[in-house]
Each structure stands twice: as structure tokens, then as C-alpha cells.
Design brief:
Length: 97
Amino acid sequence: MVVERQKIRARLAAIKPILAQRYPIDSLAFFGSVARNEATNTSDIDILVEFNKPIGFQFFSLAKDLEDYLQMPVDLVSRNGIKPAYFVAIEPDLIYV
């Protein structure tokens, strides 16, 4: 099964309002191989999330919720938790939902 960018975008857009009720999410985007339409059946999905307040250990619950919903491994990163150079590297691939 090849992971398709549009399907992931639609699934994330569908679940974002539900997640925003549980977590203080300002923005949600995906990047990496899925965003570039280069994903394979062994790919994970890289997701960038920005919060409007700290969430502590709930971050891990959010990652698990995303994995359960998307039925694939998720590599979740926080906008405030990544180095500026890393953000510059991923910014061209970001697809916001």
C-alpha cells in the first residue's frame, strides 16, 4: 500500500477538529516523504504541530491518537521543540491542514 498525500491530508483535516477539542492545537501540518508523494508501504508520516499552550506528557497521547487514526507510524514534532535550522529544512515540504 502506497500512502497518498491527498488521502492523508483529508484524514488529518477530518480529525483536526476532534483533536483540537482534546489538545490546544493551533496548527497541524505534515511533511517528508508523504508530503512529497514519495512514501512507500514502510514509510511513517512526519507531522508538525503547533500548540497555543504547553501540553506536557499529553504530547505522547496526541502521537498515539494520530497513529491510531491514521493506522501508520507517526513521527510527531512540535514547532517550539525543533531547531530553527531543522524547520528551514522541512518548511518547503509542509502541507498544512
